[in-house]
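Supplementary notes for students who missed Thursday's class. We covered one full example, reproduced here. Read the sequence, then the structure, then the short commentary at the end.
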Amino acid sequence: MKDKIFEVLQRIGRSFMLPIAILPVAGLLLGLGSSFTNETTIATYHLGGILGNGTILHALLVIMNKVGSAVFDNLPLLFAVGVAIGMAKKEKEVAALSAVIAFFVMNISINAMLNINGKILEDGSIAKNVLEGTIASVCGINTLQMGVFGGIIVGLGVAALHNRFHKIILPNALSFFAGSRFVPIISTITYMFVGIILYYIWPVVQNGIYALGGLVTGSGYLGTLIFGVVKRALIPFGLHHVFYMPFWQTAVGGTADVAGHMIQGGQNIFFAQLADSAHISHFSADATRYFSGEFIFMIFGLPGAALAMYRTAKPEKKKQVGGLLFSAALTSMLTGITEPIEFSFLFVAPILFAAQVVLAGAAYMIAHILNIAVGLTFSGGFLDLFLFGILQGNDKTSWLRIIPVGIIYFILYYVIFSFLIKKLNLKTPGREDDTQEVKLYTKADVNAKRSAKGDDGNISSEDTLSEMITRGLGGKNNIDSVDCCATRLRCTVASANLVDDVLLKSTGASGVIHKGNGVQIIYGPNVTVIKSNLEEYLETAPDIIYTNDNESCSEPDDATQSQEIKGSVVKTVIVSSPITGVAADLSTAPDEAFADRMMGDGAVVTPTDAIVKAPEDGEVAFVFDTKHAIGFTTDSGLSLLIHVGIDTVKLDGKGFEVFVENGQQVKKGDPLMKLDIDYLQEHAPSIVSPVLCTELEDNQKVRLLREGEIKSGEELFAVDFYEE
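Structure (token representation):
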């Protein structure tokens, strides 16, 4: 249950990013338009000749200002559409259209209820007994002031309706309205009633939001500290968007009267004041408390951490790591994108990330205390500082105070990180073992490490796993096809040079094989689930190509090779041959994955008889869809794979007749399948058939017992159990 909630929250957080992504552009337009049409700015810098009233540039800047304001004024609608698209699983364009319709229907319904109950008068004015700020104009409709919450309510609800009904089948007489056409219909009906219900419910919710906003605001600097700590702590989980968005966009983050309008949310208040900057003496630090502190640690603090990692790196690796850390620090300073640095903390030394969380949280509080009021659109880098701090002037923003605090933060980060790295011998970039590559990790790397295997050793968190596989294969645009056999994911890529073996292995793969533009990733019997999830993920994955700078891509994975086990044998389990034919060592298999024992250890048998029989008493774990492979669990507890031929998955079941099904109990010698040997010899690359023990423990080792001619039921190999 907890994992399900976490997954849903992550999806919601990701869906917020679609409408939020427009804010940097809107903020840029608003920032430039407002800054260079400000009479004080024009007079100070003597720009009247090119930016004064009547000039072409002045007209353009006024338009830019209006366009930027339009985005912020219509955020509820943008959130409705963006969240619906983000949460819909299929046919996202239908979800988007339905969200637009539902948004207008809901607000019109609320408007009708306000009219019916005398809250809005016949001439369209608001009744005098209505509390100021509770009714607002949304897309020209007087409705309850819900801010982006209204859009989110629509987006989540429409997405749920869409996912439930987009494949609905109706009676023949109504079949035209079936499927995706039904979604806008049910959305319209549903949100008509949602609007009616919200008329009664939202005022209560509204009072609760105002109370929560008052509590946050009333907690003063301590509240700002707590906000900053929580926001940074949630970043590894991808839930920070869910947390901070209400503070930025709703009354939880405070309310303010700007130019005669009641504005809700810290970011909205700042940009409303920016648009009316001519009448604002100093922007509200109570509004910007939720982001002004970011400039302190993103421009100054984290570069100090980068310097500490560089100075503590091994001498022979300083040159290599220096370029990586410089690039990461510059990215943080200019854009506020901290992922390359922050996630390296989390990946190799969580204690450094803990220090970052505390220091960053304190930066929010310090900025609030110092009355620093610099806004931002996306993150606290120099670009936003320049637009919304420097250009607006120190009198309005107090941006100059960031510099001395930032210098102190640079020193603090450098000293604290240097001390912890040396004291605890942390493996930060440049201090890795000689066998490890020098790299900065990303959020995707962290998710892969965390999600590749669950506590029980099974693959989990399929969406994240699919994302990592996609990145490892060079991105969606580099993947031409996806298929699988019994144990391996088979992909064709446009450019093999973009494939990152290290990243693919971090997803839980036991090996990666390259054959021209073909890539085979060894996962084991659960590969069918992985393939299905990957195909679904690729339908909506971003059209990105990821470059691969890994130079050791084709090196063999030593972990897959047989290793000598010391100690005495305490138990031996014999596995008989399921096939009559010619037995040989597994290393002779004409396939790299089998020969290198990437999928397990055992032997190969070249069939001379058509019947494949159960090697021991046990249970059929699975029969692959293409019938060429059978998973088998013996009563002694061994997991076996009988894989008939090489690349026989491509035969799509031809040449095989299977007699058993998943979960069936069988006895040794019972027929499992019948082979058309002549057909297989003609159409398959080889009929050499691996018989593998796929889940060997560290204290188990396979020992070949028979080479040459062998009959089904005769001893093929032994599994020796060594004392642990």
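Commentary. The CA atoms of residues 25 and 68 lie 8 Å apart. The first strand starts at residue 135 and ends at 138. If anything here is unclear, bring it to office hours.
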